[in-house]
Amino acid sequence: GTVAHGLVDRLAEEMLQQDAWGGWGAPRALVHHLEPSMTGLMAVAKTEAGEHELPLLLRADGACSSTTGMGEGRCGVKQVYVALLLGHPGGADAAADGSKIWVQDPIGPDPDEPSRQAVSQMGQDACSVVRVHRFSADRSVALATIELRTARMHQGRVHCAHLGTAVACDSVYGERGDAQKSFMRAFGPLPMRRPLMHSWSLELPKSWRKASGAEYERLQLRAPMPQ
């Protein structure tokens, strides 16, 4: 695909070879995947060591507490998405801007549709922090960031839908009802039918191996919002 083509002449030849275990024909370097409908940042492994370490970092879970917070997050990893939400995730009584909502509901396969995920008491622990930066009461749309403090499939989209404020234009988890119709009336037809959610920020240590008492050397990555 486009990402794989862009890596030619930038990585060692062995990292461009097809992943024998992935089964989807991608180079070994692509260990951090975005959903096909998503825009934004991806991390690429440049070496064999990175090929093994990076997935472990990205899949590790961190503690989650609305009281004590979580420090650096998942083994020092902080992953943030930007999204437009249909409604205010804090509810009608929440402050319009600046709200922070902790979502700590487990996620697992949807028993009715195995291709989807859902909040389920039989699922794995999952924690997201949703911050509302702007809210339009007239249009009932919130500009929010979603920090993933665990790594579950479709986690941000599932948690936002569970709050009753699905990501705009999300045909999988969004309601095909009044909220989506109101959004389309306000903003008109969009060039692409995809969830309006963008992988904006990723912070992680260059390695999770360090000497006792030493500080992690960190990478801070950003992907500009699409125009």
Provide the fold topology:
Layout: H1 2-7, E1 39-40, H2 48-59, E2 78-86, E3 100-103, E4 107-109, E5 117-119, E6 128-136, E7 141-148, H3 155-162, H4 178-187, E8 197-205, E9 218-222
Parallel strand pairs: 1-8
Antiparallel strand pairs: 2-7, 2-8, 3-6, 4-5, 6-7, 8-9
Question: Keywords, please?
Answer:
Pseudouridine synthase; alpha+beta; seven-stranded mixed sheet; two-stranded antiparallel ribbon; RluA_PseudoU_synthase; pseudouridine synthase activity; 227 residues; RNA binding; 2 domains
Order of helices and strands: HEHEEEEEEHHEE
Estimate the strand proportion. 15-25%
* Annotated CATH topology of the largest domain: Pseudouridine synthase
The amount of helix comes to 10-25%
Spans with pLDDT under 50 lasting ≥5 residues?
68-72
CATH class of the largest domain: Alpha Beta
Overall 3D shape: globular
Number of distinct beta strands: 9
Number of continuous helical runs: 4
InterPro entries: PsdUridine_synth_cat_dom_sf, RluA_PseudoU_synthase
GO molecular function: pseudouridine synthase activity; RNA binding
GO biological process, one term: enzyme-directed rRNA pseudouridine synthesis
Organism: Polarella glacialis
Walk me through the structure.
Helices cover 16% and strands 23% of the residues. The chain has 4 helices and 9 strands, in the order αβαββββββααββ. Strand 4 and strand 5 form a beta hairpin. The strands form 2 sheets. Strands 1, 2, 3, 6, 7, 8 and 9 form a 7-stranded mixed sheet that branches. The chain has a two-stranded antiparallel ribbon with strand order 4-5. It has 2 domains: 2-61, no CATH class; 78-199, 2-Layer Sandwich (Pseudouridine synthase), CATH 3.30.2350.10. The longest helix has 12 residues, at 48-59. It is of the alpha+beta class. It has helices at residues 2-7, 48-59, 155-162, 178-187, and strands at residues 39-40, 78-86, 100-103, 107-109, 117-119, 128-136, 141-148, 197-205, 218-222. It starts with a helix and ends in a 5-residue tail after the last strand. GO terms for molecular function: pseudouridine synthase activity; RNA binding. Belongs to the pseudouridine synthase RluA family. This is Pseudouridine synthase RsuA/RluA-like domain-containing protein. It comes from Polarella glacialis (Dinoflagellate). InterPro entries: PsdUridine_synth_cat_dom_sf (IPR020103), RluA_PseudoU_synthase (IPR050188).
